[in-house]
């Protein structure tokens, strides 16, 4: 059963088209990343799903309910958690007080003390919100999103301001939640975060979904040509290599191919037989960021400038 179903979703602001026939589906227990540049329609889409914004056309079902129906909106929000980029939290309350108060808004909340530990704020449980660092405030935001024990969690740039170790802790928390059956809709500008967490990704640009799929196949990543790079020891002529390479001087060899397995086999066999090391050998395909930039219209000139 789909936790979220969107079909033909459209929204205008005057003459500006914010969403144009958007459609996607999110399965229960899935992490679904909605990616796109600022102004592409991510926020509008999410606010419609959350019931904060009406739509012009289209069908939307969230946990089996229509977020546009005011009669069932409260019941829907009791099953949702939201982590926004900025939450208004009373600065003079303590971390635990804020969590305990918000827990009271839900029919079956988690224990606030459990949440304090889960988001790594045990040592700050009795500290006032105004004394928290930016990263600690983001941890509290995350705690407020999950204290209601939601079935569906919206994460909007959840790790902004986190150091690398805190980001990894947050990722593990998200994985633990989905292992427990929670569905997550994630918006982020960190492509490594989307790749680490998302089961599926949709890219929105200019109000339309331009691609969707698993991170490893999005935009043809799985079939795009690979880039094989290595250095030859000084004095070894690249013409002696068992595969065709671009002529040129220098020790660095850069090969682009859609037959990387055959090319690698030939290179490594030659390396072993001739006793010539392939220094710093790497194999790369298009990254998720490469695909994202292509899909959203980013182009780089030869001199590196954006056009």
Which sheet architecture does the biggest sheet show? 6 strands, mixed
Structural class: alpha/beta
- Number of structural domains: 2
CATH topology of the largest domain: the name is Rossmann fold
**Percentage of residues assigned to helices:** 25-40%
Strand content: 25-35%
Give unreliable regions as ranges: 299-307
Shape: globular
Look at the structure and give the CATH class of the largest domain: Alpha Beta
Assigned CATH architecture of the largest domain: 3-Layer(aba) Sandwich
> N-to-C terminal Cα separation, in Å?
43 Å
Tell me the CATH superfamily of the largest domain: P-loop containing nucleotide triphosphate hydrolases
Give a structural overview.
The protein has 2 domains: 2-215, P-loop containing nucleotide triphosphate hydrolases (Rossmann fold, 3-Layer(aba) Sandwich); 226-284. Helices cover 30% and strands 26% of the residues. Helix 3 crosses helix 4. The protein is built from 9 helices and 12 strands. With 307 residues, the protein is an alpha/beta fold. A 6-stranded mixed sheet has the order 5-6-7-3-8-9, sandwiched between helices. The chain has a 3-stranded antiparallel sheet with strand order 2-1-4, with helices on one face. The chain has helices spanning 42-50, 70-77, 95-103, 112-118, 134-146, 164-179, 191-197, 260-274, 288-295; strands at residues 2-13, 16-27, 31-35, 57-62, 80-83, 152-156, 183-187, 200-205, 208-213, 226-231, 252-257, 279-284.
């Amino acid at each position: 059963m789909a936790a979220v179903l969107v079909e033909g979703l459209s929204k205008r602001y005057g003459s500006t088209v914010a969403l144009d026939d958007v459609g996607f589906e999110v399965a229960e227990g899935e992490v679904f990343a909605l990616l796109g540049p600022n102004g592409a329609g991510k926020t509008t889409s999410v606010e419609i799903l959350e019931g904060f914004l009406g739509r012009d056309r289209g069908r939307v079902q969230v946990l089996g309910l229509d977020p546009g129906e005011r009669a069932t909106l409260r019941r829907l929000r009791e099953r949702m958690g939201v982590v926004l980029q900025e939450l208004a939290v009373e600065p003079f309350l303590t971390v635990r007080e804020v969590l305990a108060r918000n827990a009271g808004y839900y029919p079956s909340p988690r224990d606030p003390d459990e949440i304090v530990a889960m988001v790594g704020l045990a040592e700050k449980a009795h500290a006032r919100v105004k004394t928290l660092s930016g990263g600690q405030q983001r941890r509290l935001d995350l705690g407020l999103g999950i204290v209601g024990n939601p079935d569906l969690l919206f994460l909007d740039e959840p790790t902004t301001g986190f150091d690398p170790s805190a980001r990894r802790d947050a990722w593990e928390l998200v994985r633990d939640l989905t292992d427990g059956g929670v569905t997550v809709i994630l918006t982020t500008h960190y492509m490594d975060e989307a790749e680490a967490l998302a089961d599926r990704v949709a890219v929105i640009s200019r109000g339309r979904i331009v691609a969707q799929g698993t991170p490893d196949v999005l935009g043809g990543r799985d079939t795009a040509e690979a880039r094989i790079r290595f250095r030859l020891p000084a004095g070894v002529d690249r013409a002696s290599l068992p595969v065709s390479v671009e002529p040129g001087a220098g020790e660095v060899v850069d090969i682009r191919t859609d037959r990387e397995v055959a090319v690698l086999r030939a290179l490594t066999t030659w390396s072993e037989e001739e006793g010539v090391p392939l220094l710093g050998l790497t194999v790369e395909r298009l990254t998720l960021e490469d695909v994202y930039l292509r899909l959203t219209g980013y182009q780089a000139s030869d001199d590196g400038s954006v056009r």
